[in-house]
Amino acid sequence: MAKDKKLMQSDICNGCGICVSVCPTNIKLGKADDFDINTAKLAISVTNGAAIINPDACIACGICTRNCPVTSLTIVTA
Description:
Elements: E1 5-9, H1 18-22, H2 24-30, E2 44-47, E3 50-53, H3 63-67, E4 73-77
């Protein structure tokens, strides 16, 4: 993740998964020949109806924030 930014999520997430599908980190991982959805260290995923952010994999690019239909994701200064 960028040192000066981080991705934050509010409690209004509806678990639609758009953020997962537009995340460049996730897309790059998904193109690997040995990709396994169950073991991959995705930057963002949906679990139990809500987006879960992996701060170790997220690069805080903001693409998910611009695509979130309920604006539950925000990039903030760390």
